[in-house]
Amino acid sequence: FCAGHAFLADGQLFVAGRHVQGLQHVGIPNAYKYNPSANTWTRFPDMNLGRWYPTNTTLPNGDVLVVSGQIDTTQGNNPLPQVFQNATGTWRDLSAAQLIQPYYPFMFVAPNGKVFCAGPDPVTRYLDTSGTGAWTKVGGNSHFGTRNWGSAVMYDDGKILMMGGTTCAPYDRSCGSFPTPTAEIIDLNSSTPSWTYAASMAIERKNHNATLLPDGKVLVTGGTRGKEDPNSNSTNPAYASELWDPATGTWTTLASLTVFRGYHSIATLLPDGRVLSAGGKYGGATAEVYSPPYLFKGAQPTISSAPASVTYGQTFLVSTPDALTISKVSMIPLTSTTHGFNMTQRYIKPAFSQAAGGLNVTVPSSSNTAQPGPYMLFILNPNGVPSVAKIIRIN
């Protein structure tokens, strides 16, 4: 555990670094990919040094950027960004872009093809992964400050929501501050991106998860409201879930979890539109499945068929008997989440039109908008009820 992971274009999972058994804050340099069809692992050349808590980001060309992660307690965090070159199975060092970053930085491919670091540090930057790499500051600083154990999502192309977290160091056992309920947004499509406060959540929380839903809303689940360090049980768990609507900028408090889902818990969107919340240091080997409000607004539309793979700019047929009632199509990558951050999550709204027997859906033309890999394809009716997804690959 404590690795970084993101999907490759062919649907295999690329995993970099992880925890050394019995040695806290020490990472390994190993890198693998996992083939779910064959249930096999393939090892690649090691990274430059170990990484414990790195972030993996699938790039527009299908390679994978790996940043940060602690080497050990003497050397600290790995400053060298590296790009795994999928075609050759080798590493490319971004030697001109060395920078000490915090654990699991919130990294997103921006509309300009660069990778945007949204946090947890308040200084936000672009990373140009071409050549030997280069960092540039963008967007100024986020307003709240450091958001350790917070979370962030790209809820629309180039638009990021970041919420919760604490200014205390990640493993501070004498933290004097409660987590924050505040949230901020930034639009990277702007000529001068800057952070602005969004409405705050109803409750403060850290070690929570943020999950994009098929209708474009953001579900926040779990976490703790207390000052305790992540390895300690919470006396005030954040049981209530909250839903952020980008159309109105408001939060709605929803159903509560029955188990404390904090440090090491996960939340992931399922193809049927529900959300799986599971695990956690004090959640044990348990799981809960949440049905969002849209599943109580009538029958789900049906996708009869869709191609297994598509290419950029391609228009393809989604066969459905419900074409006349569809008001939205969305695509969300298969999720890969750990420690409150989903490394592959983003929301895509492809153009579509009615066609004989279904819908003509057009894949975005730019891989900056939709990186190659596996996606859940949803169709939604005017009530926001999503279909069960079809899994398709963009390559």
What does this structure look like?
This protein has no helices and 35 strands. The chain is mostly beta strands and 395 residues long. The strands form ten sheets. Strands 7, 8, 9, 10 and 11 form a five-stranded antiparallel sheet that branches. A four-stranded antiparallel sheet has the order 1-2-5-6, with no helix packed on it. Strand 14 and strand 15 form a beta hairpin. The model has no long low-confidence stretch (mean pLDDT 97).
What is the structure about, briefly put?
The protein has no helices and 35 strands. It has 395 residues and is mostly beta strands.
Number of strands: 35
Kindly report the average pLDDT value.
97
Helix content percent band: under 10%
| Shape call | globular
Structural class: mainly beta
Report low-confidence residues grouped into runs of 5 or more.
Answer: none
Q: Mind telling me the C-alpha Rg?
A: 20 Å
- Number of continuous helical runs: 0
Task: Please report which band the strand proportion falls in: under 5%, 5-15%, 15-25%, 25-35%, 35-45% or over 45%.
Answer: 35-45%
Termini Cα gap: 29 Å
Tell me about the largest β-sheet: 5 strands, antiparallel
Tags for this model:
395 residues, mainly beta, five-stranded antiparallel sheet, 35 strands, 0% helix
How is this fold's topology laid out?
Layout lengths: L3 E4 L5 E4 L2 E2 L2 E5 L3 E5 L4 E5 L7 E7 L5 E9 L3 E2 L4 E4 L4 E4 L13 E3 L5 E3 L5 E6 L5 E8 L9 E6 L2 E5 L19 E5 L8 E3 L10 E4 L5 E4 L18 E6 L4 E7 L8 E5 L5 E5 L7 E4 L18 E2 L4 E5 L8 E6 L3 E2 L2 E2 L8 E5 L2 E5 L10 E8 L9 E5 L1
